[in-house]
Amino acid sequence: MKFSFGNKNNVEQSITISIPAEDIQKQVKTKLNSAQRSAKIKGFRKGKAPIDVVKKMYEPEIRQDVINDSVITKFYELVEEKKLKPVGRPNLVPERMEMEKDIIFKATFETYPEISLGNLSRLSYTKAVSSVAEEDVNKTIENIRKRMCTWELKGGNSSSGDQIKIDFVGKIDEEEFEGGSAKDFVVEIGSKSMIEGFEDGLIGLKKSDNKELNLTFPEDYGKTELASKKVVFNVDAKEVLKPILPALNEEFFKSTGLEAKNVNEFKKEIKNKLEEDLKNLIENKSKSSILDSLREAHTFEVPSAMIESEVNNMRQNAARRVGMDPKDMNEDLFPKETFQEEAKKRVSVGVILNKIIEEKGIKADGERVRKMIEDRASMYKEPQQVVNWFYSSEEQLRSIESISLEEQVIEILLSEANAVEEELTYEECVTGHN
């Protein structure tokens, strides 16, 4: 048996495996004898068929099984001996399969990347500095009121914040296109739910008005066949509605799920909620920033098999978020290319974090793991049963421990790296625009 492989630092490897013909023949003979004892062949009692008859019927299949098992077994023995870590299954291609000759296979595969950690204390990350201002509280309250408002007919012209019911027909090069027309379609002006310019074009209309909107679909429009195309919408206004905001009273406060008896108490509750959200946002921004710095400081080849696996996980999660069974999703709905770049980033970070855990000998903190499990269990009717289930399922427990380990590493990185403060408003933190 022969074995050769490329530079250990390369992710892509190829090996040639040669298995002696006598080894194959010996195993085939053993399996044929076993098959002879159990074979039910027409015209013979069980186990009494001549070996020549058994060979004619079963030898090709048995020989192929023996070869496959021998090659894959030797492959994993050899990569373990050479201390290589294969990612995914190898691609095995036969190069010689003649009878009474040594069997030769070419195996190509990827290995888990070997990396060297840089000086982690030299990393830097952006730390947002922000606070909740009174205007943030007032704006949040107004947004809540708008979401819970009622609508009534408006006699005058439409303005931002109003709803307008319209019929419209869209044409590209004077031809109607699929999905470009609708009747009794309600648009909230200022919601930014339509393409740029559409909602602004509806301002100032009143019932029975007609208007032509000359617009352009954005470059990144969801339907690629429409992206960047010039379009003309012919719009008929059918009715205009204005929002009637709920009064700031105890009934309204209660409908939002907050306990308050007056406006000041309500504002205080809202501010507490916003500050809690802001704290989580800042922590997530710091985490994202330090992980970006970590990834940028370590350049290495990422196995395509690992990226492919992460892409599949992301696609399945995306399907679940929209209430779809992952088994029912199709390529068009969740194209793999959409997830490729982010999957590569996640895999890269995961490899580096695992290296840090390995080198620093970090172990999962039992108390942290317990708290994470209890937090998750608190969302169910019988929390203790859920806690017991986590601890009785090795797979689920390992999953939580993995998340805990990642959090521990990130805390270490944040404590050792250089924080570069960036002052942001609450809105800039929430929207990500500054």
Report what the structure shows:
- The protein has helices at 21-38, 51-81, 134-147, 250-255, 263-296, 304-321, 337-360, 366-377, 383-392, 394-416, 426-431; strands at 12-19, 86-96, 103-111, 124-129, 150-153, 163-172, 175-188, 210-216, 230-244, 418-423.
- The chain is extended.
- It folds into 3 domains: 12-111, 2-Layer Sandwich (Alpha-Beta Plaits), CATH 3.30.70.1050; 150-244, Chitinase A, domain 3 (Roll); 272-431, Trigger factor, domain 2 (Orthogonal Bundle).
- Helices cover 45% and strands 21% of the residues.
- It is α+β, with helices and mostly antiparallel strands and 434 residues long.
- The protein has 11 helices and 10 strands.
- Strands 5, 6, 7, 8 and 9 form a 5-stranded antiparallel sheet that branches.
- The model has no long low-confidence stretch (mean pLDDT 90).
Descriptive terms for the model:
Trigger factor, domain 2, Chitinase A, domain 3, three-stranded antiparallel sheet, Alpha-Beta Plaits, 10 strands, 3 domains, 11 helices, five-stranded antiparallel sheet
